[in-house]
Structures are given as C-alpha cells and as structure tokens.
Amino acid sequence: MNIAYIKEKVMRGEEITPSEALSLASDECDLSSLLDAAAEVTNHFGSRKFDSCSIINARSGLCPENCKWCAQSAHYATGAATYPLVSHKVCMTMGRMNREAGIGRFSLVTSGRAVTGKTLDTICSYYRELKEQGGMGLCASMGLLTLEALRKLREAGVERYHCNLETAPSHFGSLCSTHTIDDKIATIRAAREAGMEICSGGIIGMGESMEQRVEFALKLREIHPASIPINVLQPIPGTPLEKMKPLTDDEILRTVAIFRMVHPKAVLRFAGGRARISPQAQREALRVGINGAIMGDLLTTVGATIEEDKRMIKEAGYEF
Hints:
Blueprint: H1 3-11, H2 18-25, H3 31-45, E1 51-59, H4 88-100, E2 105-110, H5 117-133, E3 137-141, H6 147-156, E4 160-162, H7 169-172, H8 181-193, E5 197-199, E6 202-204, H9 210-221, E7 227-232, H10 249-262, E8 267-270, H11 279-288, E9 290-294, H12 306-315
Parallel strand pairs: 1-2, 1-9, 2-3, 3-4, 4-5, 6-7, 7-8, 8-9
Helix pairs in contact: 1-3, 2-9, 3-10, 5-6, 9-10, 10-11
C-alpha cells in the first residue's frame, strides 16, 4: 500500500480503510516514511498548543475487577497503596499545585468498578469548588458509571470523562473477565449523552499483536474520542503481566503513527510507561503524533517531572 496515497487521503479528511490501516502495520511498510507522513498529518490537523493534564489518585486499591495489568486490583498482591477518598485539603492542594504549574486539565481518578452514593456526592462537591477556582479544565475517571451519576459530575463542572477501552476487542477477554469492552462503551455513550467530551485510549505492550493494535485504533474510531491516552505497559510485580517483554522504540513509534493516521484530529496523549521509552523516541513521538500528555506522577508509577516535560515539549516546537 502506498503511504503517500494514504497520507493524502487522510489530509483530504477521508477515513482510511481497515486494510489500509493494516498495511501500515506491516514490516513491508517503511517506518521512516510512515513517521514522516504521520508528522505531516499532525502538523496539518493539530494545534501547536500542547494539551497537558494531570491526575490525582483519589481512591486507591482494593478494586474488585481482575484487569491483569493493574496494580490496584484486589486479585493481585502488588503492595499498592490502599486508601479511601482523599480529603478535601489534599484535593484542593493538588489542584492548586497543578494550576500554578500551568497544567491545562485536572482529573480525579478512583479505583473500583464505579463511584456511587456519598462518595460521588463528596467528589461532586470537590469539582464544584475546583470549577469556582477556575484556570483548568476538569476531567473525571471513575469507572462504569450510570447516566445519572455522569449527569451529576457534568453539573458539578466535569467537562471530559475518561474511560479507556484498553486494548483490541479480540484481546480484551484474555486480560479481564469481570467487565467487557461493551460495558465501557455503554459508559462512554452515557457520558456523551450527559454532555461530556470523551477521553479513551489504552495500553500497548500487553501481549497483543501489531494487527490487534490496528484493531484497537479502529475500535476507538467508532467512539470518536477527543483525547486518546497511549500507555506503554510498565509491568507491575505481582500482576500476571509482570514478566511481559518490553516493546521496542520502533514498535511504539509505529503504533503512534498508525493511531495518528486513524485519528488525525484527536489529541494523542503520552500517559503511563514513558520511562520505558528512550528520550530520543519520546521526542520523535512528539514529532509524529503525540500532542498531549498526562504530566507529573501517575497512578501507581512515577512519570517525568512537569519541568522536564515542559522542556521537551517546547523543544519539540509546541506551546505550553
């Protein structure tokens, strides 16, 4: 398949076909040419203003779901911290620190299948106060919520809801049996009905094939997320994936480029696992498709510091 033809098709605003996307995953597709094509698409459709966000691990551990990649699942002995909802003081302090650092979006993330009852009410009170303070967009990641719960969050000021599909439908069932991708899509549709934008991506390097990464990108296209976090698996001791072989930089870059060709207008967001990518590959990823990032400490792993990220982002030609 001709890369130039596919690139021009994307630049005209047309969707590439599944067979065209799969051709980009082939070893016969020259990686350098693909990366250059994806960089052109990024420059054509993307803003030079970098989309930054930060998250707070607002409720940690003891999750009843059995996702094989997750340190917070109660099914695995990982030594991850466990605590109930963070206090008002902690939430507001984290919000202030990120606002002062210039972060564009701020999200509370909770472990567990869903947030309900008094905990949801408390979270909504936090968001109302954060909204009054201004200065940042507000996001939430709280599991498989009902439409009623999502409407409460929207009324409290949440603009974007995060719910990762995580991986290709053909691979998901081998990684999690306590919920399905269809459960996630139902939540995403409810969040959109409640008036929120969608942030949905997942993790690469969980034993899936490159063809399944293409399948994953195409499945995400069905839900049209505004933001797509791309995590690279950082194996957690105690989880079933603790000995998973790491991806190469070339595999990661090819994946980013394919996601850009499938999602020319979405924000592709660096997320967890960046420590497993070389600095050179991180800079190249910024050129070919990454135009957003979760910055600062992540959930159960540590990301780069905000100042380190700012330097790299500006060196890549983005405004922060």
